[in-house]
Design a protein that fits this description.
Shape: globular
Helix content: 40-55%
Number of strands: 8
Order of helices and strands: EEHHHEHHHHHHHEHEHHEEEHHHHHH
Strand order of the largest sheet: 1-2
Largest sheet: 2 strands, antiparallel
Number of helices: 19
Structural class: mainly alpha
Distance between the termini: 59 Å
Strand content: 5-15%
Radius of gyration: 22 Å
């Protein structure tokens, strides 16, 4: 019988973890992660180098990052993720919960540099980036992995590194772009200007696209392929103001109609098997669905945490099927509230029916619509916008010029992408319209709040991260 080793899964701060230590991120199966995992081994110890000499353990190390991203950090659908925190920070959610809740400072726009949840977002994100870098270095140094496996794992790790840095730069502005596990180098790292962060994200994604296959590595589209990297690249180009490139990258995905289609019914958009899904997170276990459902659904009022703001509800046009399908009303003798109902499965369903979607086709139509509009291609921009509107039960847009069309697209993004990982806040920020929308309705809002503060503990640990963002 083979010897076995039981490894405890631990989090590692990216500044201090040297790559020569044991890699403690393996899991017992490729799609789930436990606190303790059991791995068959011929020896009594598994070194970091040995992980990347075996296809199973190397893949396990990579897939474990997805489980960490799903449960903690910027892409978590939990109350501590961006969908909840930044939804409350902007104009999507009203907070009704316990005054001691970690959500309240975000809702009141009173976050400070010592805020525990800011530190947690930062730490979890860089731990995940660290592990992605460990995968990249491990497969590059491997002498036994097949080339197609090396390419796949490196491509996915570059994708992970890109998307987490994308969220960090949009939350914190200038940030360190970490590309190594060398703790001596990382402990002295400085912040990179946001424009350079975008350039590095683009370079990483361009490399990932050359490495990733067109086919998904697993069922349910839970590991990104070439088209997922292209979809993310389209978003990055849009945010960076590269309109032609954003349009072309979006088209590269949308033109693959054999795999990706816009759902004809909004009722199907968030089901596990929707063909509008480009990339989604795997469930933690059979029958478990999304954290988003647990975070947003409530059955009686007042809400235990957050409900949708009136401003969001009023942004929907008459007869918009998204309002009737993706929003649920809860009423009692004391009031009426509304919650996000994109994800409806809030219990164990035996077999998972909904998975948390990070990239989907509808966003790409809106990316391409905006990119085309900003280049003056108004006819084709309207076609993309109308594809979303018609599928949602609405008439074609009445926008006549570029300014009207860009405004129409902004509102369409508001009602299409609400409570999905901070899209609304990021849209207002990149369009320089935060003050216009938030100042009239958010008493604690000020112009300096377009960026979150760098965690004070990080600056104390590494003074190269100074200066602090203005206003903090």
């Amino acid at each position: 019988m083979k010897n076995k080793i039981i490894l405890a899964s631990k989090s590692v701060h990216y500044l201090f973890k040297p790559k020569s230590l044991l890699l403690l991120v393996l899991l017992s199966c490729v799609y789930s992660c436990d606190e303790f995992v059991e791995v068959d081994l011929p020896n009594s110890q598994l070194t970091a180098e040995a992980v990347y000499e075996d296809k199973f353990t190397a893949t396990a190390a990579l897939v474990d990052i997805y489980s960490k991203m799903r449960t903690a950090g910027v892409l978590s659908g939990s109350l501590s993720g961006t969908s909840s925190l930044i939804g409350n920070y902007a104009d999507e959610l009203d907070f009704y919960g316990n005054p001691q809740s970690a959500i309240l400072p975000f809702y009141q726009n009173s976050v400070i540099a010592t805020n525990r949840d800011i530190k947690t977002l930062w730490d979890n994100s860089y731990k995940q980036i660290y592990t992605a870098n460990a995968v990249i270095e491990g497969v590059e140094q491997s002498t036994s992995l097949p080339q197609d496996t090396r390419d796949l794992l490196k491509g996915e790790a570059l994708f992970i590194r890109s998307i987490i840095h994308f969220y960090l730069v949009n939350l914190f502005n200038d940030i360190p772009y970490i590309k190594t596990t060398d703790y001596l180098q990382n402990r002295q790292v400085s912040r990179t200007p946001a424009s350079e962060v975008y350039q590095q994200i683009i370079l990483d994604l361009e490399t990932a696209i050359t490495l990733l296959p067109e086919e998904y590595a697993t069922a349910d589209r839970v590991r990104p392929n070439k088209y997922a990297a292209l979809a993310l690249l389209a978003r990055v180009y849009l945010y960076a103001g590269f309109w032609a490139e954003a349009s072309n990258a979006a088209s590269a995905v949308l033109n693959n109609t054999a795999v990706y289609q816009l759902d004809t019914s909004v009722e199907n958009s968030f089901l596990k098997n929707s063909n509008s899904t480009i990339w989604q997170f795997m469930s933690s276990a059979a029958g478990i669905n999304t954290s988003e459902a647990s975070s947003f659904i409530f059955n009686s009022g007042p809400p235990p945490n957050s409900a949708l703001r009136a401003e969001l509800l009023n942004a929907f046009e008459t007869n918009d099927l998204r309002k009737t399908t993706w929003i649920r009303t809860v009423t009692n003798s004391t009031g009426t509230w509304h919650h996000a109902y994109k994800y409806k499965a809030n219990t164990n369903t035996g077999t998972s029916v909904e998975l948390s979607k990070v990239l989907r086709v509808a966003e790409l139509y809106l990316i391409r619509a905006e990119a085309r509009a900003r280049q003056g291609e108004l006819i084709t921009a309207k076609e993309d916008l109308n594809a979303i509107r018609i599928r949602s039960g609405l008439p074609e847009t009445t926008a006549n010029d570029q300014a009207e069309l860009v405004n129409a697209i902004l509102n369409e993004r508001r009602v299409e992408l609400f409570t999905e990982f901070g899209h609304r806040f990021f849209d207002l920020k990149r369009m320089n319209r935060l003050n216009e929308f938030l100042a009239p309705i958010k008493p604690g809002w000020s112009a300096t709040m377009s960026h979150l503060p760098i965690p004070e503990a990080e600056i104390l640990l590494n003074p190269n991260l100074a200066p602090q963002n203005p206003g903090y």
